[in-house]
Amino acid sequence: MAAATEGTPALTYPEMRRLGRAVPARLRFTREGKLLVFVAIAVGMGAVNSGNNLLFLVLGVLFSLIITSGVLSELTLRQVTAFRHPAPHLFAGEPALVQVDLHNAKRRFSSFSLEVTELSTTLQGLGQRRGALLVLRPGETRSVHLRIVGTRRGVIRSAGLRISTRFPFGFFEKSRIVPLAERYVVFPGLDPRPGPPLTPKAPGQEEEIARVGLGDEFYGLRDAREAEDARSIAWKVSARRDRLVARENQLPAARRVVLLLSNVIPSEIPSARERLEAAIGRLASLATTLSESGYAVGLATADGGIAPKAGRDNVVAIYQVLARLPVRVVQPGDEVALWQGYSGRDVERVAVVTSDQQRSALVPHADRIVVVGEGSGEETS
Question: 268: closest CA among 354, 363, 359, 335?
């Protein structure tokens, strides 16, 4: 769904090279590397105590491996830059791919065994699988893909990208940070269950959807098909083009729906937050289903809302609001006022509430009520 990222402007490769040089490389011992250093220390102590030339020879070989590993890993990371193409949509619990372009600015030496990860500042909200590249030739640009999963809705901040390598022997992992900050907006996870049945209301204030249908608004022209209805033929255009041309109209959205959500939890029920998160995901799913069925869908919460409007863009706007929606704690007896920025008596109101809100009398007035209970239970009234 529409891009759920908010990041810094794109940087040029020279700018990224300067940023890469500003951040020093980091070195981490792998399990094999720790074993190598331990063996080198043990051999060194034995060589000093015994004066055995063979032990000194072995010690020299071990130190050569350590030095060679450090030099080659540093050469691999040098002048390697990265540019991120953020995932267009990120839903809680669903994996998404992030494309990262790696560029080797070296003229003569290739880079080997490169891995890329997001440097998240909110690690509890992001799961990821590294993107790997076996070889990057001099002057070459290649793409890798990170597999990331937002574990909860909200905003996940990344401080940049980490480029790392274990080349050549896997004894050490050397990494360099590319400070390209990014913010991922994680939409609520969608629930595949169908929405509640809606009864017809009084007609009025209809609008059109940007899809072909039987509405009154003009959508476009196309070549007429065989057995085309004569009423759909654009005769003047057909006369000018010397061939039959049919007129297409937009699909009418005859009904409007506002989804109501009290983003509050009663103070006496500490576990109510989890059920409210489930209700938020359920509402996002209803918005998707109703919009695809031809409804103009809106949203009303205690922290604002969106007027009902047809089209995919409005559903994405609802996702954006739900992703950032705070959870408020209220005391027993407190009144919760929802956004009232929509108008029209033809609007159908569907409230999505939790069983906790139902027990605490925090249910808004609506034509339909969807109750999200414990576990995956749900009731519609």
Answer: 359
Task: Please report the sign of the dihedral spanned by the C-alpha atoms of residue 32, residue 35, residue 41, residue 43.
Answer: negative
> CB neighbours of 354 closer than 8 A, spacing ≥ 6?
265, 272, 275, 276, 278, 279, 371, 372, 373
Report residue 367's pLDDT band, with 50, 70 and 90 as the boundaries. confident
The rounded distance, in Å, linking the Cα atoms of 298 and 302 is 14
| Residues forming beta bridges with residue 297, ordered by sequence position | 257, 309
**For 202-242, what is each residue's pLDDT tens digit?**
444 444 445 544 455 666 788 888 777 777 788 888 888 88
Q: Cβ atoms within 10 A of the Cβ of 59, count?
A: 20
How do strand 172-178 and strand 154-165 relate by DSSP bridges?
antiparallel
Domains of the chain, earliest start first: 5-186 (2.60.40.10), 207-253 (no CATH), 256-380 (3.40.50)
Asked if residues 150 and 156 have their Cβ atoms less than 8 Å apart, the reply is: yes
Tokens at 269, concatenated: 């029920």
* One-letter amino acid for residue 129 of the chain: R
Percent of the residues in the chain that have a pLDDT greater than 90, as a whole number: 22
What is the Cα–Cα distance from 235 to 224, expressed in whole angstroms?
Answer: 11
> How would you classify residue 139: left for phi > 0, otherwise alpha for psi between -120 and 50, otherwise beta?
left
Q: Is the pLDDT of residue 286 over 70?
A: yes
- How far is Cα 55 from Cα 99, in angstroms, rounded to an integer? 49
Q: In whole angstroms, give the CA distance from residue 5 to residue 86.
A: 7
Q: How confident is the model at residue 2, as a pLDDT?
A: 39
158: β partners: 120, 182
**What's the whole-model pTM score?**
0.69
List the structure tokens of 172. 């050490």
**pLDDT by residue (tens digit) across 152-184?**
898 888 888 999 999 988 888 899 888 888 888
- Among the listed residues 280, 254, 307, 286, the one whose alpha carbon sits nearest the alpha carbon of residue 372: 280
Yes or no: say if 267 and 305 are a contact pair by the CB < 8 Å rule: no
Average pLDDT over residues 341-345: 73
